[in-house]
Specification:
Distance between the termini: 75 Å
Oligomer: single chain
Strand content: 35-45%
Radius of gyration: 27 Å
Strand order of the largest sheet: 7-10-6-11
Helix content: under 10%
Structural class: mainly beta
Number of helices: 1
């Protein structure tokens, strides 16, 4: 007798075993339903059987604390390159793109040569990197995040 499992039932059951007893507490939980199918040949007959339906309630991941890193432009050998996208500054006169001025006019930002820093120097550009998984609303597009920095 030859048997073929059309769904990876063993893995599915292992996941079910891990999730049993963890009832969702978040309103945005989703349900995943599965019915496994097994087929085998018994002589000249093909036998097909379905399992019972199994429902898994899956909670969204818990919030991850956002992280903030700051960088300064640097051309030393220890610097690394990052791409700095166009930044929009929202001020009292409306939105305007941030451009480099003074000694930094013409400094490439795609990519920019930077070093991570914890200090800021007057008149020097400061590059801010924010990693906030909860603000990633659409994985197929670039999301916009409103940030307010004060010194």
């Amino acid at each position: 007798m030859r048997s073929v499992i059309t769904h990876n039932l063993a893995l599915f059951l292992a996941i079910v075993t891990l999730l049993i007893g963890s009832a969702p507490t978040v309103a945005d939980a989703q349900t995943i339903s599965n019915i496994a199918t097994i087929q085998w040949d018994a002589g000249t007959n093909r036998i097909i059987r379905n399992s019972n339906r199994v429902d898994l309630i899956v909670e969204p991941p818990q919030p991850v604390t956002p992280t903030l890193k700051t960088y300064q432009l640097d051309s030393s050998p220890t610097a690394h390159n990052i791409s700095v996208p166009t930044t929009i500054c929202q001020g009292s006169s409306g939105a305007s793109p941030v451009t480099l001025g003074g000694a930094f006019v013409g400094t490439p930002l795609l990519p920019a040569s930077v070093l991570q820093t914890t200090t800021i120097r007057a008149g020097e550009p400061l590059i801010v990197e924010i990693n906030s998984a909860l603000d990633n609303q659409n994985t197929t597009t670039i999301d916009t995040l409103m940030v307010r920095l004060e010194t």
